[in-house]
Amino acid sequence: MAELQEVQITEEKPLLPGQTPEVAKEAELAAGILLDQGQTHSVETPYGSVTFTVYGTPKPKRPAILTYHDVGLNYKSCFQPLFQFGDMQEIIQNFVRVHVDAPGMEEGAPVFPLGYQYPSLDQLADMIPCILQYLNFSTIIGVGVGAGAYILSRYALTHPDTVEGLVLINIDPNAKGWMDWAAHKLTGLTSSIPEMILGHLFSQEELSGNSELIQKYRNIITHAPNLDNIELYWNSYNNRRDLNLERGGAVTLKCPVMLVVGDQAPHEDAVVECNSKLDPTQTSFLKMADSGGQPQLTQVMASSCMTRLSRSRTASLTSAASIDGNRSRSRTLSQSSESGTLPSGPPGHTMEVSC
């Protein structure tokens, strides 16, 4: 019998008919640029159209990271600085990202006609299954800020099996009480919509300091061509229902949760209260000193929180063969200190980080 010889075959990408290697290289480069810019899609839902932008390619057995922005912002102004930090490269390389724009908040969005009934926050949450069905994604890790954090929490309560973890920044799980409602109405008599939204996004100390960051976001909101749409989203946020979270009760977030808030930020008390209502074995609380009202805009947020999320997920995938699926899901955001992931300490601990 003739001796078998090892033959190495080099696979080459076939050229299209009439295509030169130079043209093929340019096409590949253009495809890479398009991938970096993201691919924007819109889908129809029972509550209107919703636009979202996808970055990266799906990875087998890995959830997508789905983000939802706060009032006065869109996905770019809310999350783009976070994902541009060098510490986020691990996330970018290992996860596909889906950035959702609330209806009418996407760049170039037309102004809704007078009398348009904007969806409630509950209805915005009910749009998410349409997005996942369109993309054929089965599970997500949600990252939300303010109104977006509420929307993702509402979605997680109604679709717990599709959420592997949540990072909730500046979440207020409570409906506005009568005193809050009255104060909001009185403020509306003396303040413009942009000023009220800025007061929601940033602390009074930050606004008084009028830093370059504040000037940038004041300009974005004040001169937004879709300001009427922003006001509708703002009204929906102020009319939100109570999530009715209860530690040990029937209504609670079943996935691992990381709560994030800046020290002395407008929503610090609300996030602390939310922490008291969640399962301490599934919840980590990250309070960031000197990070302001929008901690996701700081590099400390990227290095302290999101890269741990990536390593945590990688560790849980590695151990999936030896443990059942539910335990694997529960470890997405709650790895032990051995893995070098979430901060070590007792369950439900608070970690303070200085910027």
From TrEMBL:
Gene that encodes the chain: NDRG2
Entry superkingdom: Eukaryota
One Pfam short name: Ndr
Region (Disordered): 316-355
SUPFAM superfamilies recorded: alpha/beta-Hydrolases
Protein name: Protein NDRG2
Keywords linked to the UniProt accession: Cytoplasm, Developmental protein, Differentiation, Neurogenesis, Wnt signaling pathway
Family: Belongs to the NDRG family.
Role of this protein: Contributes to the regulation of the Wnt signaling pathway. Down-regulates CTNNB1-mediated transcriptional activation of target genes. May be involved in neuron differentiation. Contributes to the regulation of the Wnt signaling pathway. Down-regulates CTNNB1-mediated transcriptional activation of target genes, such as CCND1, and may thereby act as tumor suppressor. May be involved in dendritic cell and neuron differentiation.
Localisation per UniProt entry: Cell projection, Growth cone; Cytoplasm
GO cellular component: cytoplasm; growth cone
GO biological process, one term: nervous system development
Chief subcellular location: other
InterPro entries in the record: AB_hydrolase_fold, NDRG
